[in-house]
Design a protein that fits this description.
Layout lengths: L2 H25 L6 H15 L9 E4 L9 H8 L4 H28 L6 H16 L2 H6 L6 H13 L8 H17 L7 H10 L7 H30 L8 H4 L2
Helix pairs in contact: 1-4, 2-3, 4-5, 4-7, 7-8, 8-10
């Protein structure tokens, strides 16, 4: 990218982070959802200090969710900075993570040699604004939900493949990132059809069997790499790396 594009990307990210950080200040608080009170902070504590021998389902079955994405919320809750400042830091961090892949995707999809520079900038910024106005993002700005944080690898998986005929290395990295997002939140496995359709039609390249196998292996590698620390603990303590799911396969 040119220097001007780098400056634009950085400015858009900084402005977005400042804008969303203002939400807790406007609300006067950082809201704790029911989930937040019940298990978000508790899961962050588990990520830092596992309590297998001390608690028994302290937050019900939710105690066994992948805990590491909740560690930042737990740490913020322990700082003596007040809820508004904690919420501002959390919201700004989310924006700083999601805006770069959004901006990169919009630049590659909307770029045209015939576009005036001002129009191109407006379209990229508008695309980022529309994405941040998603109800999923807005709901996360004033709560402790980790849905936005969990989808960051998936956003980057899309962003790095928005080129014409991406190479195998790029595809392998994108698939690994998708696997990581599934490790963060199992419901992201539902994005498989979306990802395959995108990679089939969007960038404009065919999906031969070898590349399909590359996607499958890379996604599995990304998933195992990130999920293994938590899955191993569940396996050791419950006999099921996906506890409380799939007990029929791992019952002992």
């Amino acid at each position: 990218m040119t220097r001007a594009l780098w400056i634009e990307a950085i400015l858009v990210t900084l402005v977005a982070a400042a804008a969303v950080a203002a939400v807790p200040f406007a609300a006067g608080e950082w809201a704790w959802s029911w989930d937040g009170l019940n298990h978000h902070v508790y899961l962050g504590l588990i990520a830092e200090s596992p309590r297998w021998r001390l608690d028994v389902e302290a937050a019900s079955a939710q105690s066994y969710q992948y805990p590491y994405l909740y560690w930042p919320v737990y740490r913020l809750s322990q700082l003596d900075i007040g809820g508004v400042w904690a919420g501002a830091l959390w919201s700004a961090a989310l924006a700083a993570l999601v805006v770069p892949p959004l901006w990169l995707t919009s630049r590659r999809l909307l770029q045209s040699a015939e576009q005036p520079a001002a129009q191109a900038i407006f379209e990229r910024v508008a695309a980022c604004v529309l994405a941040l106005l998603s109800i999923v993002v807005l709901a996360a700005l004033n709560t402790t939900a980790n849905d936005v944080l969990a989808m960051v690898p998936l956003l980057w998986a899309v962003a790095i493949t928005t080129v014409e005929r991406p190479g195998n290395r790029r595809i392998a990295v994108a698939a690994a990132l998708w696997g990581i997002s599934v490790a963060f939140k199992l419901s992201h496995a539902l994005a498989v059809p979306l990802v395959l359709v995108w990679w089939w039609y969007g960038p404009g390249w065919p999906l031969p069997w070898r590349r399909g196998a590359l996607i499958a292996v890379s996604a599995a590698f990304g998933y195992v790499l990130v999920y293994a620390p938590w899955g191993w603990q569940l396996w050791r303590e419950t006999g099921n790396p996906f506890h409380p799911f799939l007990h029929g396969l791992f019952a002992r």
